[in-house]
């Protein structure tokens, strides 16, 4: 009888941490859903449909001068729903990316890609 009680107590101590981790997993899901959505104007450098990524050059949105030194290259993951949009853009094209931003405000996951010329007639050069 003592052995059975000992094994039951041991099982409870071993299994308790496993049950305690379920809320942490759902908490992680909640934080990913609370990412901010933002739009980024960019120029396509390359796309990789197999890796589900897009590489773009972005300008600093707070730069009033618009100098070339304020641009940076960004490689972003592309959401499963937006992967088909990679076929619609080519290197050199100007696009507007809608993306979920990470804690630092950087574009983390692209959810939509629109050609800049198709969103506004004023974007022609």
What does this structure look like?
- This protein is an alpha+beta fold.
- The chain has helices at residues 2-20, 22-33, 116-119, and strands spanning 37-48, 53-58, 72-78, 94-101, 107-115.
- A five-stranded mixed beta barrel has the order 1-2-3-5-4.
- The protein starts with a helix and ends in a 6-residue tail after the last helix.
- Mean pLDDT is 76; it is low at 24-32, 61-68 and 119-125.
Features:
single chain, 125 residues, alpha+beta, OB fold (Dihydrolipoamide Acetyltransferase, E2P), 2 domains, elongated
Contiguous low-pLDDT stretches (5 residues minimum) are 24-32, 61-68, 119-125
Strand arrangement in the largest pleated sheet: 1-2-3-5-4
The top level CATH class name of the largest domain: Mainly Beta
**Corresponding CATH superfamily of the largest domain:** Copper binding periplasmic protein CusF
Number of helices: 3
Q: What integer is the average pLDDT?
A: 76
Give me the CATH fold name of the largest domain: OB fold (Dihydrolipoamide Acetyltransferase, E2P)
Estimated share of beta-strand residues:
25-35%
What CATH architecture of the largest domain would you give? Beta Barrel
- Can you summarize the main beta sheet? 5 strands, mixed, barrel
Structural class by sheet pairing and helices: alpha+beta
What share of residues is helical? 25-40%
List the domain count as a whole number. Answer: 2
Please trace the helix and strand order, writing H or E for each element.
Answer: HHEEEEEH
Judging from the principal axes of the Cα atoms, what is the shape?
Answer: elongated
The count of β-strands is 5
The N- to C-terminal Cα distance equals 85 Å
